[in-house]
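Um, can you check?
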Amino acid sequence: PLGAIYAQNHPKRKPFVCAGALIHRLIFTSLFFVPCFIGNKAVTVAAVTRLLCIAHFIAAFISPAASNWIISLTPQKIRGKYFSTREMYTLATLSAVSLIAGFFLDRTKASENQGLGFIIVGVIVGILAIVNFISLSRVMEPESIEQPAKGISLANAIKMVATDKEFRPVLLAYTAYNLAIQIAVPYHGIYLIGDLQISYNTISIIT
């Protein structure tokens, strides 16, 4: 909600969304290259952990504003068709990119040069991040989508959430759920690759 509160006080949301999306995606891109430049495993894990925390914070910060911005730019009479079509193309693109990435990782793993595979995937992700930023930057934003809402600050919003007894259980449940997801997901991938010895391409097809 902090990002939504920040965005609602500014009539122009495009710079906020575009900059946040670019930083978020570039941080994720850098994760593929960190092990190539840091030899110490402990330092690598610490660096990756910090980058992940920053990336997830930025994603959570801009997501409400980005979703609301895209919805407000889409005429109401075509919103359903637009978002269903966008979702279809998004899933198709993700599937194709995942299969390509899985192919490269399997080939480089077989040739005992897996690091090169992750570099190739990182380059692909970086190119997609730049394409995403250019596409967002080309969106024509109206002079004023809606009137900026004044009267609530970030500090007051944090205080309001922390002191609301009815909302506090929801916040705790949501926090616990996301914490469990973030802990479980990485180990799930390690289990599939390390213990079950499933190929990257097979994982891409399953997911």
